[in-house]
């Protein structure tokens, strides 16, 4: 997605060999116009699917997932990372190792918002080693739901997330695919 690649080049900050900071438009401050374009792009790419709902993980997946849900007219559920007092005991959980924070989080979805035999689309901000998406896949499997596909805003192809998902035969659509960071520049894959 050209406009996203241009924005990454303009506003993305390379923190080290494998982390890109995009907190001026996606992870902290959010650009709603760009998010809407991202939602419309995912809606186009997944127009052939029969999704009933969209799943993501708080907090950075919420903005692109909500815009995709708006474009596809689907409800959006985000897995929580902290069990709140208002969350009932009737929940699905999975353990996720956080790539950026280097801690294990439990992600939680209330059973009222995910049902057996539903078709689910997963949307997330980044694909690195695939742990966040794997956690959502584990929850969907527990619930007896089917995965229609995974939509990723920014994939880093030098990490092993895609390989992990392809081993599960999962369809992945990524809007920007980063091959490497070189001399302080983001290099996208040629495809
Ligand atoms: P994974 O579970 O695929 O290893 O990592 C995915 C999660 O880690 C994403 O949801 C995102 O929040 C975070 N993440 C992974 N790589 C990056 C990165 O380069 N920059 C930022 N800002 N977040 C990342």
From TrEMBL:
**Pathway(s) this gene product operates in, as recorded in its UniProt entry:** Purine metabolism; XMP biosynthesis via salvage pathway; XMP from xanthine: step 1/1
What role does it play? Converts the preformed base xanthine, a product of nucleic acid breakdown, to xanthosine 5'-monophosphate (XMP), so it can be reused for RNA or DNA synthesis.
Q: What class does this enzyme belong to in the EC scheme?
A: transferase
PANTHER family in the record: HYPOXANTHINE/GUANINE PHOSPHORIBOSYLTRANSFERASE, XANTHINE PHOSPHORIBOSYLTRANSFERASE
Membership in a protein family: Belongs to the purine/pyrimidine phosphoribosyltransferase family. Xpt subfamily.
| The organism of origin for this protein | Xylocopilactobacillus apis
User: In terms of one coarse class, where is the protein primarily found?
Assistant: cytoplasm
Quaternary context: Homodimer.
A single Gene Ontology CC annotation of this entry is: cytoplasm
According to its UniProt record, the EC number is 2.4.2.22
- Signal peptide span: none
Under catalytic activity, the entry for this protein gives: XMP + diphosphate = xanthine + 5-phospho-alpha-D-ribose 1-diphosphate
Tell me the protein's name: Xanthine phosphoribosyltransferase
């Amino acid at each position: 997605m050209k406009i996203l690649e241009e924005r990454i080049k303009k506003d993305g900050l390379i923190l080290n060999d494998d982390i890109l900071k995009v907190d001026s438009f996606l992870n902290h401050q959010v650009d709603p116009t760009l998010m809407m374009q991202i939602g419309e792009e995912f809606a186009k790419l997944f127009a052939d699917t029969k999704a009933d709902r969209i799943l993501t993980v708080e907090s950075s997946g919420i903005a692109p997932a909500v815009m995709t849900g708006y474009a596809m007219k689907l409800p959006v559920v985000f897995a929580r990372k902290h069990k709140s007092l208002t969350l009932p005991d009737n929940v699905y959980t999975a353990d996720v190792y956080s790539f950026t924070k280097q801690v294990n989080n439990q992600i939680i979805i209330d059973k009222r918002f995910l049902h057996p035999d539903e078709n689910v689309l997963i949307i997330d901000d980044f694909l690195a080693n695939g742990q966040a998406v794997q956690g959502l896949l584990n929850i969907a499997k527990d619930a007896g739901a089917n995965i229609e596909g995974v939509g990723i805003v920014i994939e880093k192809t030098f990490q092993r997330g895609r390989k992990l998902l392809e081993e599960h035969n999962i369809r992945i659509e990524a809007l920007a695919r980063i091959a490497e960071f070189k001399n302080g520049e983001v290099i996208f894959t040629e495809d």
